[in-house]
Amino acid sequence: MTAAxxxxxxxxxxxxxxxxxxxxxxxxMPGEIHALIGPNGAGKTTACALIxxxxxxxxxxxxxxxxxxGALGVVTRARRGLVRAYQIVxxxxxxxxxxxxxxxxxxxTRAVWRPFAARARDRDLTxxxxxxxxxxxxxxxxxxxxxxxxxxxxxxxxxALAVAQRPRLLLLDEPLAGLGxxxxxxxxxxxxxxxxxxxxxxxxxxxxxxxxxxxxVTVLVAGHAIASGSPDAIRADPKVIAAxxxxxxx
Length: 250
Ligand SMILES: Nc1ncnc2c1ncn2[C@@H]1O[C@H](COP(=O)(O)OP(=O)(O)OP(=O)(O)O)[C@@H](O)[C@H]1O
Description:
alpha/beta, Rossmann fold, 2 domains, 4-stranded antiparallel beta sheet, 11 helices, 38% helix, binds adenosine-5'-triphosphate, P-loop_NTPase
């Protein structure tokens, strides 16, 4: 039997009286696109933040490649290959797209803390960053700061930055949010292509995209995973229909 790449076992995280993660357990297998779905407030974003290390668990274990990463911070988890895509604008608003990716390429080497010295030593850096940008349909010669890129361009840059860090597990929180139909379709294709080189765990509200992309789906309700399975099994699961998917038809 293949070992899980990521395993949450009995993870709980409280905010005051509310358990945003409540005895949460599920597994992400190597090579799959795994979607985390659930109603608003189910705890999907909290689960992402717990997995990436932005917030810590109150109880339970998070295993990445068989090792407990629950006590490690964001940077250490990212260096091990557990990388979340962030809203770029909040991080590097004044950098251009290519500078943003250069930082991402340096991050796994720790050189991010002294980027200018490292840049002088790594003459390939700009060329490598250009290759990453091109994969995401972004222009390496674009001198605009990230803050003024269009919403769709920023989403692509956000994922490109995460990919530059060579993730073994890429965490995507609502990659299609705010995208128009054409941009969404392009992003679905991008995610499918990324899945050839990295395992993907994504939170997504767009059910059509989830069922088109995901190999397996986990359904969260009130911080707890009520089901994990193939898209077909999830769609047919009476617990899921009652708790979530049935909502639309109610
Ligand atoms: N930092 C926080 N402090 C207090 N409560 C929080 C905090 N973060 C999340 N919560 C609460 O935890 C619950 C789960 O929130 P979370 O954002 O993880 O859900 P979600 O499934 O991602 O929701 P959505 O689909 O609306 O994005 C919600 O009730 C939310 O109000």
